[in-house]
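Before relying on records like the one below, remember that each one covers exactly one chain. Contacts with other chains, cofactors or solvent are not represented anywhere in the record.
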Amino acid sequence: MYGCELRKDGSKAGFWQDGYEGKTFITFDKETRTWVAPVPQAQITQRKWDALPAQNQYFKSYLEKECIDWLQKYLSYGKETLLRTEPPRVTVRSKTELEDGMETHICRLDAFYPREIDASWTRDGEVWKEETFSGFLAPNADGTFHYWLSIRIDPKERGRYRCHVEHDGLLEPLDLALEEPTNSKSNLGLIIGCVVAALVL
């Protein structure tokens, strides 16, 4: 197995290693152009390969030049997709449970890319997991993703909670405060009042 890396500062890294039965058998040190045997069984192979300086120079050159060239070529092919970021659209909806007066708040995250996202509920700035639920992270038709999480709280403590979101598409983490749910009883009274007024008229 081998690979190479091109870092942001322009430096390069690479590795070449062979394994046996799921364990590392021998590795190549490209700086010294020698082989390292982490297990005694590899020492014979180590001595044999260390005695091939031309081959070891080729491995070093390959990891630092040819492998990097191929890496840059593949990155250019997929640059648009690999570097694409779409920030999540985050909304918080809530409702009051009529049975016990508790509130359920749902934090919805939609249309974000890439897939990796960190979303959680916090209380007083600390991650909070009690009475929380979450859905599956799923794809949208356009290749972006959506996700949701919910929490059930005592309305007296609403101001202590936030929906916390971190994603590559955001310049900084997002913290959304919880809003007071729409009062269903008031709405019902308003509707009944309108109906009565209409009948009187």
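The chain has two domains: 2-83, 89-177.
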